[in-house]
């Protein structure tokens, strides 16, 4: 399970050292793709295959589904960590998420996200109070 917030840095070649707590889950490969709010989503290869199977049930007649799948899958990049647990974040994905040098890698349970660090801090500042004040059910049956 991916948990926590980890401050990381991209090197000059666009490589990122995976947080130590995420390495075992991602050792056999991962998939990076575009996420909402201009971050990148990181899936283990196994989890990405599961998500893709669910996506395959989307009706081909739905323009919204086609649009989503095009953006989500066209940006996907399969990566294999090297011996130093580094992955290369493709330039197109770095550009999409506005990644420069300092990044935040956050755990999202079954996946992780990579954010430009200042953008993550701004997002968190804007949404944290709403989280603390939440009184209605956001996730049915859980919270």
UniProtKB/TrEMBL annotation:
Stored CDD domains: MraZ_C (cd16321), MraZ_N (cd16320)
Listed GO MF terms: DNA-binding transcription factor activity; transcription cis-regulatory region binding
Transmembrane intervals: none
Domain of life the protein comes from: Bacteria
Claim: Transcription regulation is one of the keywords in the record: yes
Listed InterPro entries: MraZ, MraZ_C, MraZ_dom, MraZ_N, MraZ_sf, SpoVT-AbrB_dom, SpoVT-AbrB_sf
Domain SpoVT-AbrB intervals: 5-47, 76-119
Keyword set includes DNA-binding: yes
Compartments where found: Cytoplasm, Nucleoid
PROSITE patterns, sorted: SPOVT_ABRB
Primary location recorded for the protein, binned into one broad class: cytoplasm
Family to which the UniProt record says this protein belongs: Belongs to the MraZ family.
Designated name of the protein: Transcriptional regulator MraZ
GN (gene name): mraZ
């Amino acid at each position: 399970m991916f948990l926590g917030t980890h401050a990381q840095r991209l090197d000059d070649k666009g490589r990122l050292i995976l947080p130590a707590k995420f390495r075992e889950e991602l050792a056999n490969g991962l998939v990076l793709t575009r996420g909402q709010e201009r971050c990148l989503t990181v899936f283990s290869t196994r989890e990405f295959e599961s998500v893709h199977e669910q996506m395959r049930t989307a009706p081909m007649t739905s323009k919204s589904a086609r649009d989503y799948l095009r953006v989500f899958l066209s940006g996907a990049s399969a990566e294999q960590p090297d011996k130093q647990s580094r992955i290369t974040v493709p330039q197109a994905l770095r550009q999409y998420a506005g990644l420069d040098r300092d990044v935040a890698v956050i755990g999202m349970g079954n996946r992780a996200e990579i954010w430009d660090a200042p953008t993550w801090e701004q997002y968190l500042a804007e949404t944290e109070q709403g989280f603390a004040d939440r009184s209605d059910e956001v996730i049915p049956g859980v919270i």
